Every structure is written in structure tokens, then in C-alpha cells.
């Protein structure tokens, strides 16, 4: 009886541990799901035509006053826009607002104007143009029932507890479906104040710092203030009967608040996740630089969309599992603080968020899932031999916004850059890129990042980016170790690569090769610059492992050693050979036939011998296997054909 109870308890414990681990482990389908959700949004972004007139004015402050009730699908509000005219005197300006929302009034101090609301745009014509660098305040009052398109930019439904919930998810261009705004990827609002009135009993989650929450006459008025530039699609509210939990990441002089708004029934579970959140935040601060909104907060608000959305300082989350928390938090640095300047460089958001999640697996949870995470990425990347990380073409949705390229291969490009440049230069470049005042809180292009990498490592990365970013595919390697008896028993390691896509004929890389001797190993870093290439080893190894730590994107690479055959080998020389290869048979042996195979084992020639010599002048340079049949034995050997 005791034993049974003990077993049941043990099972329960294992089950609990297993569940706890599951919510932290990398999910092999996670990136696919993420990419599918985010990719749809990116596609819309890529196809969106921004208003031409948007370049004529800068939006420097927005104050919103919204009234909502999660039980009723409707919104009313008034929005203040503080604008500044740019290059030309501003005679008119445009904003976006879906036609089905009704404008109650537009007001502006000290200026006469007319306005129209057509084609989902508000156009305001000023009687007296606003002079360059002069500011103006425009107030727009509106109301209506937001339409529901895409992800549901304005969603009302119920939580699993049966409570009404309302959330917004504007990415990429759904904001105009619920508020008048400047939907821009080139102008962030410099700061924003968000005021929301809702019925008592609800709590409002939003961007920035919670300034006040006042209950009066059955209504709650909540004020959030965000003092950093923010792209329109990252402005969001979520309203339900949230339970709240907060923890603080202690820092030298200060602390960063992590604020969780979750369904009451999820609160206990959420509390078990806060240790991971603090660890992730601390790690990203250390690896990249201080969380860019540290004096406000970072938060999570639970919502019903099965995924996550990196709303600035308040990610909306389906759950709080490790991988999703890491991905959305990483976006605060790359995506929110530094936003990609062109959708072609989508990897600057997604490859980075994915790699930062990988770094969390490397450095946290005792590194238990790091290898699994790397294997997941490599196997996803190499499911197809084609496709570049750089987005060439908007029309091929499935390949462009793919989890394989923008997320996994983008992440692995960073991992390979780290291997090529070394940890010190790589992380220095990452920090410098993030802290570049020209980019921080603004926008970046791929070249901005490359410039920081090249400066930190004092090297050119043109070839790396041509091959790995603009080019497609990956290399497969054959490493062949053998003893060269024609040259005093020299230990040689010959390396050959084939590429999976014709856009790149050779990937110049440093190869991690681990050689073992008497139970000891050392990691060699072989600079592979030409095909084939022979490296001399100090001594004869017991075994060789290629890329044991998974630094490179490669598939089907093999290492071979022919030590076991050496005693019986025939002498072949010269090796490498340029044209004439001599085969020296043993006494009393006569060569009957010779077959030559390439490095992948495919038969390519059955040449004729002339005085025990082969004419190989027509053979393409490379690494070859040769089978030599004599009247007594069959020998399997190899040689390298060198170019002239
Ligand atoms: Zn993402």
C-alpha cells in the first residue's frame, strides 16, 4: 500500500515537472505558428501605400480619450494631434480613419479649415497654410462600431472565465479601423497619453506608465503615459477584469517593473512564470543594453488571440510560456525600439527576436534546451535547398514571410556571425547597433547593422552577406582524414563543400572541427577558402567531429577516416596530383582495373592505366575516391586533384 502511494506521488511529481518543463521547452512548431501570424501582418505592411502627404508633417504628441465597454462592440472618443509642419508650408494634412466610423467634430485653434472623410481618409485643408516648423493642435471627436477585419484590430469577446474582454491588435494597419491616426512606418509619435473610461470592475492595459486609475459614478478612468517614440501599430488597449501581479528587476540604482495583467483564473500560474521573466529581462539587458523603456515598465496583458503581439511596453499574450515571453520581450529591443525601415529587412525584427530567444535558451534554464533549439532551427532551415533571407519579391508570400528564412535562417545568420567574429566583437556590434543614436527609437536598414558589425570586428562582411543574406541555400561538407604515405606519413584532412543552391558557388567559412586523441579533444578552426583544401594535422587523431556545437547551417556533412586501411594501402603519388598519378603495386601484384568516384561516392571514371600511371589532367579539381583492383586485392583509397 505504501509503495503504491509512493508511486502515485512520484508520478504526480513527474507529471508536474514534465508540465513545468513543457512550458519552457522550445516548441518545434513555435516559429511556424509565429511566422504564420506575424507574416500575414507583414504582408499587409509590405503592400500598404502610405499617404503621400505624411512626409509633410511630424506627429509629436497624441492624447487619446476613449470610452469603451467590453460588453458592447463600440468606441467613442476624441483624439488630439500635435503636429509640426515639415519642409513645405502645410496647406492640408491627411489622417486615416475607416469610413464606417462617424466624425462628430474637428476642431483647431486659430485657423479656418474644411475637411472631408472619404476613402477611409480624413483630409483637412487649411485656409492659411501652417509655416515650416510651426505647430498646430487638431482635435477629432468620433464614434462608431469598428469593423472586424484581419486579426480583428478591435475585438470584443469573452475570457475563458466568461467575462467580457476587449482588445485591439492593429498590426500592421488596423489602427484606422478603431481610431483616427497617422498610419506610418516612417514617423513615430514622439510620445502619447492614453485615457480610457470603462465600467467599474474592469482594468485597462496599455502602453507606458500607469499614471492614475480613478473610480467615480460606476466608471473607471485610467491614464497611461508613454514618453518614447512609438509606431502607430504598437499603440493598444485591452480591457477586462484583469488580476494584476508585479515584480521588479533590481538594478544598481533602480529597478524595472514587470507588470502582468492576467485572467483571474490564470493568476496563480502567471506567478510561477515571473522568475523566468526577470531572468530573461536581466539577460537581454546584459547582452544588448538596458531595456529601452526601463523607467516606465514592461508588461504582459493576456488576450484571446492564440499568439503574442509585442505592443510597446505591454505585450499582449495568449499565455506566458517561456518561448513566447522571450520572443515578445526581445521585440521590445528589435521591432519596437529599433523598427525595420523596410519590409525587405524583416530579419532585423524576426531573425533578431528568434536569435535572442535562442540566447535565452543558451544562458538560462541551465542551457538544457540550447542544443534542441539549435537543432530545431537547422532542421527547419535545411528542409529546402533554396531561398534567401533578404526579401526580393513581394508576390511570393509563402517563401518571403517564411518561418524558415526570416525567422530561423535570420537567427542562424546571427549565430554564424558570432562564430566568425568571435563573442567579443559580435556582442559589441549588437550593443553598438542598439545604442546608435541615429537608430535607437527610430528605424534601421540592413546596412546599418552590417556597418556596426564591420566596425566592431574591423573586417569586411561583404562576402558573408552576399552568400548568406542575399544568396540562397547552404553548404554540405565532406571531410576526409588520411595518412599520406607518399609524404612521410603526413596526417591530412581534406575538405570539400557542395552548395545546395546555384546562387552561391562557395561559402567561405571557418569550420569548427574537433579532433580526438587518447580521450582528449581540441577544437580546430579551419579557414575554408577553396575547394578542395587540405589541412595538415599535428598527429594522427583517433576520431574527428565536424561542428559538434552546431555553429553552422549545413546538412548531410560527413567525416571519413581511412586509418583502418592504411596498412594495406598502395602508394599513390603525387597527392595532390595535377595530371599524372602513379600507383605503385606491391611486389607480385598486378593492377587489373581502376575506378574513380567523387566525394559523394558517385562513379565518374574507369580510366585506362599506362605503365601504372593515370592521366588525370581532364579531371575537375576536387577530392576523389579510387578503387584499385589487383590480381590479389581490392584497395579503397583517395586522392586530391589540384588545379594547375
Ligand atoms: Zn516576432
From TrEMBL:
Single GO cellular component term: cytoplasm
Location of the Peptidase M1 membrane alanine aminopeptidase domain: 322-468
Signal peptide interval: 1-20
Keywords linked to the UniProt accession: Aminopeptidase, Hydrolase, Metal-binding, Metalloprotease, Protease, Signal, Zinc
Reactions the enzyme catalyzes: Release of an N-terminal amino acid, Xaa-|-Yaa- from a peptide, amide or arylamide. Xaa is preferably Ala, but may be most amino acids including Pro (slow action). When a terminal hydrophobic residue is followed by a prolyl residue, the two may be released as an intact Xaa-Pro dipeptide
Enzyme class: hydrolase
The keyword Zinc belongs to this UniProt entry's keyword annotation: yes
Enzyme Commission number(s) of this protein: 3.4.11.2
Keyword Signal: yes
Transmembrane segments annotated in the record for this chain: none
Pfam families given in the database record: Peptidase_M1 (PF01433), Peptidase_M1_N (PF17900), Por_Secre_tail (PF18962)
Residue ranges annotated for the Secretion system C-terminal sorting domain, each copy included: 572-638
Residue ranges constituting the Aminopeptidase N-like N-terminal domain according to the UniProt record: 66-234
GO biological process: peptide catabolic process; proteolysis
Cross-referenced InterPro entries: Aminopeptidase_N-like_N, Aminopeptidase_N-like_N_sf, Peptidase_M1, Peptidase_M1_aminopeptidases, Peptidase_M1_dom, Peptidase_M4/M1_CTD_sf, Secre_tail
Cofactor: Zn(2+)
UniProt GO MF annotations: alanyl aminopeptidase activity; metalloaminopeptidase activity; peptide binding; zinc ion binding
Similarity comment text for this entry: Belongs to the peptidase M1 family.
Protein name, as recorded: Aminopeptidase N
Organism encoding this protein: Sunxiuqinia elliptica
Lineage: Bacteria, Pseudomonadati, Bacteroidota, Bacteroidia, Marinilabiliales
Amino acid at each position: 500500500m505504501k509503495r503504491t502511494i509512493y508511486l502515485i506521488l512520484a508520478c504526480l511529481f513527474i507529471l508536474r515537472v514534465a508540465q513545468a518543463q513543457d512550458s519552457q521547452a522550445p516548441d518545434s512548431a513555435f516559429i511556424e505558428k509565429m511566422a504564420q501570424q506575424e507574416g500575414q501582418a507583414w504582408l499587409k505592411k509590405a503592400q500598404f501605400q502610405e499617404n503621400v502627404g505624411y512626409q509633410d508633417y511630424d506627429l509629436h504628441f497624441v492624447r487619446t480619450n476613449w470610452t469603451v465597454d467590453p460588453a458592447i462592440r463600440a468606441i467613442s472618443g476624441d483624439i488630439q494631434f500635435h503636429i509640426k509642419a515639415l519642409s513645405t508650408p502645410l496647406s492640408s494634412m491627411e489622417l486615416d480613419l475607416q469610413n464606417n466610423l462617424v466624425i462628430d467634430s474637428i476642431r483647431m485653434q486659430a485657423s479656418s479649415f474644411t475637411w472631408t472623410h472619404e476613402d477611409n481618409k480624413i483630409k483637412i485643408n487649411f485656409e492659411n497654410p501652417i509655416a515650416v516648423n510651426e505647430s498646430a493642435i487638431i482635435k477629432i471627436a468620433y464614434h462608431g462600431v469598428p469593423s472586424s477585419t484581419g486579426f480583428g484590430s478591435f475585438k470584443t469577446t469573452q475570457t475563458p472565465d466568461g467575462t467580457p474582454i476587449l482588445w485591439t491588435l492593429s498590426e500592421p494597419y488596423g489602427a484606422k479601423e478603431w481610431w483616427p491616426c497617422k498610419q506610418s512606418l516612417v514617423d513615430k509619435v514622439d510620445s502619447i497619453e492614453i485615457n480610457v473610461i470603462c465600467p467599474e470592475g474592469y482594468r485597462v492595459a496599455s502602453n507606458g506608465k500607469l499614471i492614475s486609475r480613478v473610480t467615480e459614478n460606476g466608471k473607471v478612468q485610467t491614464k497611461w503615459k508613454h514618453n518614447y517614440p512609438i509606431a502607430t501599430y504598437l499603440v493598444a488597449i485591452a480591457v477586462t477584469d484583469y488580476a494584476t501581479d508585479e515584480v521588479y528587476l533590481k538594478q544598481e540604482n533602480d529597478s524595472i517593473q514587470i507588470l502582468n495583467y492576467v485572467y483571474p483564473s490564470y493568476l496563480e500560474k502567471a506567478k510561477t512564470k515571473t522568475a523566468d521573466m526577470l531572468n530573461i529581462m536581466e539577460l537581454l539587458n546584459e547582452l544588448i543594453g538596458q531595456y529601452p523603456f526601463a523607467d516606465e515598465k514592461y508588461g504582459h496583458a493576456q488576450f484571446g488571440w492564440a499568439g503574442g503581439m509585442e505592443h510597446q511596453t505591454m505585450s499582449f499574450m495568449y499565455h506566458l510560456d517561456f518561448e513566447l515571453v522571450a520572443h515578445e520581450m526581445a521585440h521590445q529591443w528589435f521591432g519596437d525600439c529599433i523598427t525595420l525601415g523596410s519590409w525587405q529587412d524583416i530579419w532585423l525584427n524576426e531573425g533578431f527576436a528568434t536569435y535572442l530567444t535562442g540566447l535565452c535558451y543558451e544562458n538560462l534554464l541551465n542551457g538544457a534546451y540550447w542544443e534542441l533549439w539549435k537543432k530545431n532551427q537547422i532542421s527547419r532551415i535545411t528542409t529546402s535547398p533554396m531561398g534567401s533571407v533578404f526579401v526580393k519579391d513581394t508576390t511570393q508570400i509563402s517563401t518571403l514571410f517564411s518561418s524558415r528564412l526570416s525567422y530561423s535562417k535570420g537567427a542562424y545568420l546571427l549565430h554564424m556571425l558570432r562564430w566568425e567574429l568571435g563573442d567579443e566583437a559580435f556582442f559589441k556590434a549588437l550593443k553598438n547597433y542598439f545604442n546608435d543614436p541615429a537608430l535607437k527609437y527610430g528605424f534601421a536598414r540592413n546596412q546599418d547593422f552590417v556597418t556596426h558589425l564591420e566596425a566592431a570586428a574591423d573586417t569586411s562582411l561583404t562576402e558573408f552577406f552576399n552568400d548568406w543574406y542575399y544568396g540562397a541555400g547552404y553548404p554540405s561538407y565532406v571531410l576526409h582524414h588520411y595518412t599520406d604515405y607518399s609524404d612521410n606519413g603526413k596526417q591530412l584532412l581534406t575538405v570539400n563543400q557542395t552548395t545546395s543552391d546555384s546562387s552561391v558557388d562557395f561559402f567561405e567559412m571557418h569550420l569548427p572541427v574537433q579532433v580526438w586523441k587518447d580521450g582528449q579533444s581540441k577544437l580546430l578552426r579551419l579557414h575554408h577558402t577553396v575547394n578542395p583544401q587540405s589541412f595538415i594535422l599535428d598527429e594522427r587523431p583517433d576520431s574527428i567531429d565536424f561542428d559538434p556545437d552546431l555553429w553552422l547551417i549545413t546538412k548531410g556533412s560527413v567525416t571519413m577516416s581511412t586509418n583502418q586501411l592504411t596498412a594495406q594501402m598502395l602508394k599513390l603519388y603525387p597527392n595532390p596530383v595535377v595530371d599524372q598519378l602513379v600507383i605503385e603495386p606491391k611486389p607480385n601484384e598486378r593492377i587489373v582495373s581502376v575506378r574513380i568516384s567523387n566525394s559523394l561516392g558517385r562513379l565518374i571514371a574507369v580510366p585506362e592505366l599506362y605503365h601504372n600511371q593515370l592521366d588525370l589532367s581532364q579531371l575537375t579539381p576536387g577530392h576523389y575516391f579510387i578503387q584499385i583492383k589487383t590480381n590479389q586485392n581490392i584497395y579503397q583509397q583517395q586522392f586530391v586533384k589540384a588545379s594547375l
